[in-house]
Design goal:
The protein is mainly α and about 325 residues long. The chain is about 75% helix and about 5% strand. The strands form three sheets. It has a two-stranded antiparallel sheet with strand order 1-6. The chain has a two-stranded antiparallel ribbon with strand order 2-3. It has a two-stranded antiparallel sheet with strand order 4-5. It is a multi-pass membrane protein.
Length: about 325
């Protein structure tokens, strides 16, 4: 059983890699590459959030706050203090992890809507600080961000690069880089899920009382996954800031937190590939509804509502179950 489970994990990773590296054949212009890069970065963010929500069963309505902290830390340290992007990203992730551990210890003792309100408050506090510290963050006007540099190699959407003899535009290079980051994020998440930590998280999700009875330190594992998901958000926030070249407090806002949690629920909680699908769908919907600008919010809500009614487990798990039933009926009919 475990061997088959690992084979399925590897299969999913290979399928994702094939999709990511085949996608450029269907991307026609820099805007398409920009959208695909944003999808990859946001998808990696919700992969981390899914560890907290889908596997540990802990709701976070303020996760954009950690995303914004990573983005602003990189922007400030590279722009005002001359740091390279990679050290800024790593130090920012460590600091965000420490902050998540400090605030997570008390609030993760709460349950249900009390936990939701507490995480919402954390997100609001971070967003307010970013918005009000005008001298440091630029306030509501935002702040420019330096291009991402790695060991003297600068990655900019406006540059041109040569990879194995192939000439790439800056937007193409950024997409390939973000695709690799997404694959790494998924691989790390899958390894965590398959480890002792992952089993402990699933037991916490199932029943905290039962988990404690069998010796699982629920407080420890809830804090750990909260920190891990915050680090995911911080790293992706840093990359997003460097890719965009300019950020505003919206990256830490309540609206973005709701979008992130909706991606997890829509794609399928507890399904790594499902939440990636949720991220893609919610990033594409505004583009598909561009001709209905005055009705965009209504149609957006209607689509989500219908999905939750008819696919309560999420898009991917529902589709997998439906395909599995059809294949089973077909096999039974042939027998």
């Amino acid at each position: 059983m475990f061997k088959r489970f690992m084979q399925l994990r590897l299969r999913d990773l290979v399928i994702l890699a094939v999709i990511l590296f085949s996608l450029p054949a269907f991307l026609d212009n820099p805007f398409h590459y920009e959208l695909a890069t944003q999808m990859a970065i946001i998808a990696a963010t919700v992969v981390g959030l899914n560890l907290l929500v889908g596997y540990a069963g802990q709701v976070s309505l303020g996760h954009a706050g950690f995303f914004g902290l990573g983005a602003y830390f990189s922007a400030i340290m590279t722009g005002s203090y001359g740091w390279s992007a990679l050290p800024a990203l790593l130090v920012g992730a460590i600091l965000v992890g420490v902050i998540a551990w400090i605030v997570g210890r008390p609030i993760l003792r709460l349950k249900g809507h009390y936990l939701s309100m507490a995480t919402l408050a954390v997100g609001f506090i971070i967003a307010i600080i970013i918005n009000n510290e005008t001298g440091l963050t630029g306030g509501p006007d935002g702040i420019p961000v330096a291009p991402f540099d790695l060991f003297g190699w600068e990655l900019s959407p406006f540059g041109s690069y040569s990879l194995l003899g192939v000439e790439l535009s800056g937007s193409q290079a950024w997409y390939l880089f973000s695709a690799l980051v997404l694959l790494l994020a998924v691989w790390l998440a899958q390894n965590l899920i398959d480890s002792q930590i992952g089993r402990a998280l699933r037991s916490v999700h199932g029943s905290e009382v039962a988990a404690r009875v069998v010796g699982v330190n629920t407080a420890k594992y809830k804090s750990l996954v909260f920190v891990i998901s915050a680090i995911y958000a911080s790293v992706m926030g840093s990359l997003y800031a460097h890719f965009q070249g300019f950020i505003t407090p919206a990256v830490a806002g309540f609206d973005f937190s709701i979008v992130l949690i909706t991606m997890v629920v829509l794609g399928g909680m507890g399904s790594t590939m499902g939440v990636i699908l949720g991220a893609v769908v919610l990033k594409l919907l505004p583009q598909l509804l561009a001709d209905f600008q005055e009705l965009e919010a209504v149609m957006f809500g209607l689509i989500l509502m219908l999905t939750m009614i008819f696919m309560p487990k999420g898009l991917l798990p529902t589709l997998q179950r439906s395909i599995g039933r059809r294949l089973k009926k077909k096999a039974e009919g042939q027998a």
